[in-house]
Design goal:
The complex is a heterodimer. Chain A is mainly α. In chain A, 82% of the residues lie in helices and 0% in strands. In chain A, α2 packs antiparallel against α3, α2 runs parallel beside α5 and α3 crosses α5. The radius of gyration of chain A is 19 Å and the shape is elongated. By secondary structure, chain B is an alpha+beta fold. Chain B contains seven helices and ten strands. The radius of gyration of chain B is 22 Å and the shape is globular. The chains are: A mainly alpha, B alpha+beta.
């Protein structure tokens, strides 16, 4: 067994689980809080649950894209410095990548729902509040599709800040 | 009441971050358990007689600086000139871009077989002495070549091209040097480096590959060893990309300006 690869795999698993649990739990809490406070959503509202699921899937899709850049950063950071400063640098780098991906997802979510609500005569959030499942499914599909479309761009943005070694002008 | 809930959430968050921090730093400790030994020779070469034979002293580090190496070898001007003459006589396949380069690389690797034994033995000796694993040995060989500063190897005269401040050697057939010429002159562009590493690794029983990209105008090594990252699949095996033109590039990491795997084609694998 190659010890280096095994340890890299452990770091990848730790990172993925940590980021996954933290981000998804945070997203769920925020969306539930917003729903209850601003839209008076009830617990039994299936339409809102579908919408929340779509948001969580979107966040998951976007966040899944940062694991590989994060591991690339770690492999490039893994030099000379002591383990505590490397771990600190790794967590700080991860926080920046998560912030970029998370902000992008929120912006995409807001823009997509805002544009859709402007294009249609009905008030989507009002319909979701009234438990209109049809509207919820359409908004959820739009949200997930837009996330899939923009994911590569966001990852490219994150890749741009990875401290790659220098290359000669080939 | 809400302040207590907030404080509880905050404490939970801090505990969670500290736990992850300790976990990651422990894993890094395991990765870096071996100390770095300082190199004992300087990076240069000297001309050792009037026929321009050279004594090379090379010191270099592993990609992650976990090991430092030092090697000394002699290169003979006459052998280098002979290798250059054979390179000029190569007949190539004009079928496709990758086949064209593949046929040239294959011929260069074949021709170099008898000339690189000294380096193979020397590197294998260092590997044994340092008790390197198979993956580490491959990394030692690649970092040996990565450490050599990049130079342009051009078909036309160097004065006719923009060399962007890099050293240049001009009027070279196919715009690449044979492995022995590279070891002698230390002038090497992307494919010159890839061919040398391919020849060394193949001789040591590895399963290397040379990949080329017309879109990126670039060549690179790929290697079938246990690794992670960017790779290309061939006959059910994973060949991980390895950038050779700059220091510090680990296996399985394509540079961001050439990271579309679809644009990379196999030029040489299994000697064909």
């Amino acid at each position: 067994m190659d010890a280096n690869i095994a340890l890299l795999a452990i770091i990848e698993i730790i990172s993925a689980i940590t980021i996954g649990i933290f981000i998804l739990a945070l997203t769920y809490k925020i969306v539930q809080w917003v729903g209850r406070k601003y839209y008076k959503i009830q617990d039994y509202n299936l339409s809102y649950s579908i919408f929340v699921s779509a948001i969580i899937i979107s966040v998951g899709i976007m966040i899944s894209g940062i694991v590989q850049p994060l591991i690339s950063s770690f492999r490039l950071l893994n030099q000379q410095a002591d383990s505590f400063s490397l771990a600190f640098e790794y967590i700080a780098t991860g926080a920046i990548y998560i912030a970029i991906a998370y902000t992008s997802t929120i912006l995409i979510g807001l823009i997509s729902t805002f544009l859709y609500s402007k294009l249609t005569p009905i008030d989507e959030f009002e319909e979701i509040r009234k438990n209109n499942i049809g509207v919820s499914l359409i908004i959820s599909s739009i949200l997930i599709t837009l996330t899939l479309l923009t994911k590569d761009g966001v990852i490219l943005l994150i890749e741009a800040i990875i401290p790659y070694p220098e290359l000669p002008p080939i | 009441m809400w302040i207590f809930s907030l404080m509880k959430a905050l404490l939970q968050f801090i505990f969670y971050v500290i736990l992850v921090f300790i976990l990651i730093s422990s894993v890094i400790d395991l990765l870096n358990e071996e100390g770095v030994e300082a190199a004992v020779c300087s990076d240069n070469y000297v001309v050792i007689n009037t026929s321009n034979d050279r004594l090379h002293q090379r010191d270099w580090d592993m990609v992650d600086y976990s090991h430092s190496f030092c090697a000394t070898y002699e290169s003979i001007e006459r052998v280098s000139l002979s290798a250059g003459k054979k390179r000029n006589e190569i007949v190539f396949d004009l079928n496709t871009y990758e086949n064209l380069w593949g046929s040239i690389y294959a011929e260069l690797v074949r021709e170099s077989q008898s000339h690189i034994d000294f380096l193979v033995d020397s590197l294998a000796g260092i590997s044994q002495q340092k008790e390197l694993s198979r993956s580490e040995f491959a990394e030692m060989i690649v970092s040996f070549v990565q450490d050599i500063p990049y130079s342009y190897v051009r078909v036309q005269d160097c004065s006719e091209a923009n060399n962007k401040g890099k050293p240049c050697i001009g009027n070279i057939a196919f715009g690449l040097l044979s492995p022995y010429e590279f070891l002698h002159s230390l002038y090497g562009d992307c494919d010159t480096r890839s061919v040398l590493i391919y020849a060394l690794l193949e001789k040591l029983g590895y399963d290397p590959m040379i990949v080329v990209s017309n879109e990126y105008a670039h060549a690179m090594l790929a290697l079938n060893i246990p690794a992670s990252g960017d790779h290309l699949k061939h006959q059910g095996k994973k060949y991980y990309f390895w950038e050779t033109t700059g220091k510090g590039w680990p296996i399985g990491m394509l540079p961001p300006n050439s990271n579309n795997v679809k644009y990379w084609k196999i030029a040489l694998v299994n000697g064909r």
